[in-house]
Amino acid sequence: MLSFLPPPLRGAIATSLLFVNTILLVPVLLVVALLRLIIPLHTWRRWCTAVAIGIAELWISINSGWMMLTQKMNWDVQGVEHLDKHHWYLVTSNHQSYADILILQHLFNRKIPMLKFFLKQQLIWVPVIGLAWWALDFPFMKRYSKEYLEKHPEKRGEDYESTRRACEKFKYTPVTVFNFLEGTRFTPAKHDKQQSPYKWLLKPKAGGIGFVLGAMGDTLTCVLDVTIAYPGHRQPSFWEFFCGRVDKIKIRVQQREIPPDFLNRNYSEDEEFRLEFQQWISDLWQEKDALLEQLHSSDNNSNDNSSDNSSDNNSTDHGHPDLPA
Fold it and tell me: In a 10 Å sphere around its CB, with 0-12 CB exposed, 13-18 middle and 19+ buried, how is residue 166 labelled?
């Protein structure tokens, strides 16, 4: 453990290890992807896909290693006990920090199929990482705004079809589709601009997972609803996380059954489905906001009690368990 080092030095070490890990493994990943592309045999391509996922899981495991090396964090995690790598999942979470992605990858690595994000089409041009996403079959989507569709009605429905085509390849090999419902990281400025009715959350955008449920809902086992709280940090930066300044994290994972009425329906064209689904998401978000309030307030109460105890006993040991396996 290097937690005795000054935070900026720990941040520099963590950043360097992430960079080296990426630079070393992405070229190997690309070679496997190219071999899969040039040899058009179904069995061969499935094997190459499995190898590519194994490389990605190794990348995540190495990241977990430097997190353990450079940080002394107390992890409070519940709800990951009965997951299965051979099932299909849809995962969603609140979003406060870029660190959320590393944390979720660590949390679910080798417990469920690797997380795959729906990405904007232009993100394929992000240096190094864009190619890695392509090699791992992350679906790149071309989404049209409401204003664009009003000017070009002939494009209506194409976003649903592109989602359906992207999901087709997921029906034969277990996969976890991931989506941040808020669509962006929480900040007080965004919260105020939205006039969000939630204390800890931005307004959810239901369309993303609405399309997924319509396209492949009958394949999915359930929705994994993840709630992440950073007690004492409302939205820690990537650098604060790398420096080990985030010393505690609380995560709750709830398995939610997908209502049968939501399966195989077109979110963009079916107004009844759209309204029902938006209400379901609204109820889920109200629950999540209440849970976040509970997680933060319970930590504040714990800190108050610890302060009282420390004044009596002069010392309190909260402990910092290792990262979960």
Answer: buried
Options 2.50.20, 3.30.200, 3.40.1130, 3.30.1380; CATH for 75-296 is 3.40.1130
Global pTM value? 0.84
Q: The tokens of 67 are what?
A: 């997190």
18 versus 210: the higher-pLDDT residue is: 18
pLDDT digits (tens, 9 = 90+) for 222-272: 999 999 999 876 678 889 999 988 889 999 999 999 888 888 787 777 888
